[in-house]
Amino acid sequence: MNSxxxxxxxxxxxxxxxxxxxxxxxxxxxxxxxxxxxxxxxINFTGKYRKAIVVNNQxxxxxxxxREGDSITINVYNHLDKETAIHWHGILVPxxxxxxLGINQQGIPPGGVFHYKFVLKQSGTYWYHAHAGLQEQQxxxxxxxxxxxxxxxxxxxxxxxxxxxxxxxxxxxxxxxNLKKEGDYYSPDFPLQPSLIKFIHxxxxxxxxxxxxxxxxxxxxxxxxxxxxxxxxxxxxxxxLNGQAKTHPWSAPVKIGDIVRLRFIGAxxxxxxxxxxxxxxMKMVHIEGNDVIPFDINDFTxxxxxxxxxxxxxxxxxxxxxxxxxxxxxxxxxxxxxTSNHQFVNYKAVHPFPEPLPVTREMMSMMMGNMNGxxxxxxMHHDMSMNHAMYMPTEPGITGDKILTTNSSYSTxxxxxxxxxxxxxxxxxxxxxxxxxxxMELFGYMDRFIWFINGVPEQKAHPIxxxxxxxxxxxxxxxxxxxxxxxxxxxxxxxxKGNAVYDPLLxxxxxxxxxxxxxxxxxxxxxxxxxxxxxxxxxxxxxxxSIQYSSLIEITRHEVKPQDIVKSTLxxxxxxxxxxxxxxxxxxxxxxxxxxPARLWLxxxxxxxxNPVTHVQKATFKGLYGSDYNKLELFANxxxxxxxxxxxxxxxIFYWHLLDQFWAIKAGVNxxxxxxxxxxxxxxxxxxxxxxxxxxxxxxxxxYGGSVKLDIELSRDTQITNNFFIRLGVRSILASKTVNQAAxxxxxxxxxxxxxxxxxxMPGLNIFAEFERDQYYxxxxxxxxxxxxxxxxxxxxxxxxxxx
Length: 804
Prior knowledge:
Largest sheet: 12 strands, antiparallel, barrel
Distance between the termini: 93 Å
Structural class: mainly beta
Number of strands: 44
Strand order of the largest sheet: 33-34-35-36-37-38-39-40-41-42-43-44
């Protein structure tokens, strides 16, 4: 009897302690309401006023600061003239609160409000931003901080947020439109370019071993038809630290002896920042919302979507400069921790980072890292995927990504920036079985600016259907020349890097060129989500996928009941959030969830010039109008006007179809006006594209009057300096039969040899001088002589090239 009583008393004490613990924990929790107003504001980061999107009248948006356990309501009022929505980056919320247009919600209409409601079952450094079009690029982003129940093992007494972002004076929708016209549209504004002068400069100062590598880099570039400096797509006008450009740097007060926590947030549209604090070291303690085993660093890179928290100890009575340079060397953002008021900060004394190595070098290094430790099957998969990516057939139909069931081991490339990252607490059960493997091959048609996963852009892909309560393995293989920070909504990536239960949790993984990175995802949520590249323009151009839970589909069919579960688990920051109906389910979002639907694009290329001696005016026009893969092409080549009389003119009206990143086929009709006796129509077909060594190719065939005419053009542009090029070209016209009235001769008709130096004044505008030798042959030569024309001529033309 007594033993039973003692046991009951002990149980009661334990129960009381547990209740007290939860009471203490819950005492920190609160119901919190925040009002955010999204509106326009004229800002000036570069000496020019431009329209930006602000939240509560500021950029960055207000820092939202909560405690773990808080139940929050965020009322977002839209004062824009278009829809908006806000995504809570890294926060595990009910799916209908995730704020992605076309996936989780309809847009907040102009003048409307949306009430985001969720409970915070996690802690750490996060952020929030627009997920409607490209509004994030215009200024809609801010920090989101959640204090934990328990203090971290590391100590600090000052705490500052450092939001790094980029800014363009050009409207982001226009930026995307420009990139769709030409993938390297902004190339004239980048300091690093693969010019002949740059190669000679680097070669002369290089060691013998480095010279061999440089030659290999440029040879690979020529063969792959890509740039070795493809770090960024957009040349920005300013880089911002906490919303301030380098002309007015941000600063904050500190004192000697302070230990300062700096929470870096990568909020750039498409900029990877390289960060350092000259003269001091940093201790990395927290990555993407999760504490890690601390390690010392002198510098680090932060991609869009990532967050890194570092500690800095203030030891000297002098400013501590924060230097964040874009890896493309286009510019930098500055800030400082100052130990006294009005302290002079000599930002000019900061030495820039060494020039980055060519992307080809990083790519080959990662590919070699892939091979180390792989099983033979994985090596074969990697080699095959590289070939598949480089020569992938396109015009895919609506398709789904395959979920494989295999026990093959997949590894993460050696040499990534995550090598030193180990979780500070247990994150997962490494023995949980993997229900399926999802290979995610990241690639894109860079010149066409189409980005996709597994050869398919978002617009042509079905959702990936996952079952709840399972583990899936994502294997990212980047076969492109650019980094891709891949962000998953509503879940954690468990980065598989050999630390088992201490493998880090990440919501964004920066996948370098040539790398393979493996991460597991536990399906602890419900509903439907998106994951995507956090380079905004890559996401908009197709590098995204939607995830749909099988249970959501079953709920809409009334096969199962909705769940409403928000609870903590054994692992910190790993709540189960399975709320199927935070609000009535919008069935229109489930049919084909699409955050970025297909769009129509246009591109016009126009060369206009004049011969200063003969005053003959000359124009070449090419227009492409339509979707990524299928367009209407209008092409008028070498139209000549002399004394208000058209001497040469014809136009292709073709259907244009993209085959792969380098080649397109076309077919349609040609209207031939001059130099024929009378105008006529003829059917035509053709192929155009880019051969290795950047040889532009355009081959067209026509049929008229029983004669087949072949028009072949080849040209190559050699980059001498950053913006000075020399184009060499040759054009040959042949026919199978003479048709006098159509000005067609049998055999070889013409040979044209072109020398055109040109200079890029700005994106979309070049000036040129063109020397052309035109020689006629055979029957066509006789036709020209009979018309009173010469048998050949030399012409000099000065003009402009425009892309609009």
